[in-house]
UniProtKB/TrEMBL annotation:
Keywords associated with the record: Hydrolase, Plasmid
Keyword set includes Hydrolase: yes
UniProt keyword Hydrolase present: yes
Gene3D superfamilies, sorted: Jelly Rolls
Taxonomy, superkingdom: Bacteria
Highest classification ranks of the organism: Bacteria, Pseudomonadati, Pseudomonadota, Alphaproteobacteria, Hyphomicrobiales
Protein name as catalogued: Allophanate hydrolase
Its EC number(s): 3.5.1.54
Pfam hit, one: Cupin_7
GO molecular function: allophanate hydrolase activity
InterPro entries: ChrR-like_cupin_dom, RmlC-like_jellyroll, RmlC_Cupin_sf
Amino acid sequence: MPETTRESLTQGSWRDLEFEPFRDGVMIHWIRHFDGGQPGVALLRYEAGASVPRHRHDGLETILVLTGTQSDESGDYGVGTYIVNAAGTEHSVWSDTGCVVLIQWYRPVTMLEGN
């Protein structure tokens, strides 16, 4: 099995993975770090009430919500929602309930508020 394979994520296998701090109230499990122009892929686990400050996407970002609800200024996204944020778009992100998302960034984001 390739090192980057994670099985049964939609059935909750993410609970057995190691996460590290990413932002206040948000933990990360890297599946693939940004490397040589390749996109970064990770799981983000938001505690209830956690948020990521306003940021700009310098490349395409895609998100699949695995548990809970993730929100931004455009709406609330529940389990199974697939979100595409185009390069050049800006938003902040939060989760009132807590959530886990699978995320792929083609380039790191530029923070516009806070850190």
